[in-house]
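Hi C.,

You asked whether I'd gotten around to modeling the 263-residue construct. I have! Everything is below, sequence then structure, no commentary in between.
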Amino acid sequence: MNNKAADQPPGPANVIDASNLNELMLTVADPDEAVEYFRSALAREPDRLEFRRGYARALSRAGRHAEASLVYRKLVDDGLANTEDRIGFAESLARSNAWDEVEEQLAQLPELPKSYRMNMLRAMAADQRKDWAAADGYYQAARDLTPRPARALNNWGVSKMSRGDLKDAEKLFQEAVSYDSKLFSAKNNLVIARGLQGKFTLPVIPVSEEEKAQLLHNLAVIALRQGKTDIGKGLLEEAIQTHPRHFDAAVSKLEALNAKVKN
């Protein structure tokens, strides 16, 4: 081995490798491991801007939005935040339901009509203001900007459901599931939208046994709240039979219903 070469300082390739490692930690690494990676990096070099940004993004990815907001806020206060940082800050604030602050951040950003993330943020902010026309426009734009629109469609469906527009909500949830058959929140929302319309059968969608049991249980809850006890009991019984293991929530509800009938 050439010791002289080994003693040379890191060249450009090492810088690129470090940059690539940062990006890998933010995309494919375990979220908690990524948080620890950037925390350790910052402990060594607290003034490195890429580590501060990476730490904020890693916290967001790990679902630690309140902590991410603090890191992003410091970047903003220090005058170091770029557009991506402000978008990330607004997203973390949105996850924490700090909508007044979300609006403050959005007001300082360009419109960015071609940005999926910005359209989603503006759509959700419009939902909070109950500006339905604006929300629909932003959701449509977000949906058109991505080849994987399931999340946009699901959020749009929730928006429609909050307005009482259950038929449109059902269509949007169905479309969301067609794009991402693993998105359980869209499946659940689809069943809820149908149940609120008095449709007490599961739609034809791909589900595991456990998912099917959970959906039947949730549909039963809607039926019971509407005073449709027989339908609710039948759905609970089917949920218990379907679940691959003991389904305590459904069993407890069914036992309570049966005890009520006896009394």
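If it helps when you're writing up: The chain has a mean pLDDT of 93.

Thanks,
B.
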